[in-house]
Design brief:
- The protein is mainly β.
- The protein has a single domain, classed as Beta Barrel (OB fold (Dihydrolipoamide Acetyltransferase, E2P)).
- The strands form three sheets. The chain has a five-stranded antiparallel β-sheet, with no helix packed on it. Strands 5-6 form a two-stranded antiparallel sheet.
- A hairpin with a 6-residue loop joins strand 1 and strand 2.
- The longest helix is centred in the N-terminal third of the chain and has 5 residues.
- It starts with 14 loop residues before the first helix and ends in a 14-residue tail after the last strand.
């Protein structure tokens, strides 16, 4: 594994701010290519009571982005929808490592839980 020096801890925040972030488990049902993008794929994610399209920059990080199909992972779902390359993203994949310059990995539950389960 690449030697990585952990970044400094960010400034303290009030617990109430953390409570505003809605992080939930979802199952990635499909990974679809976005032909105009070198980085982005469209994930169709099941959150139990609804599905969302979430764009994720994993084309260059994974040999085959479809390898994440069927996996449960964490997503931030209460971000305002954002238009990227003409596509609307309805959340954010919560992965580990990207800001540290290592190949990102999914944040996954150690056992299956119901889709839509909240973190916290």
């Amino acid at each position: 594994m690449k030697n990585m020096k952990p970044a400094s801890v960010k400034e303290e925040i009030d617990f109430k701010l953390l409570e505003k972030i809605d992080i939930r488990v979802g199952t990635i049902e499909s990974v679809e290519d976005i032909p105009k993008s070198d980085k982005l794929v469209r994930l169709i994610v099941n959150f139990g009571d609804h599905k969302r399209r979430i764009l994720a920059g994993m084309k260059q990080e994974k040999k085959d982005p479809k390898e994440v199909e069927g996996k449960q992972t964490l997503f931030v779902i209460n971000l305002k929808p954002r238009k990227i390359m003409g596509e609307v993203s309805e959340g954010m994949l919560f992965d580990i490592g990207y800001p540290d310059g290592i190949v990102p990995v999914l944040a996954v539950p150690d056992t299956a839980v119901p889709d839509g389960s909240r973190m916290g």
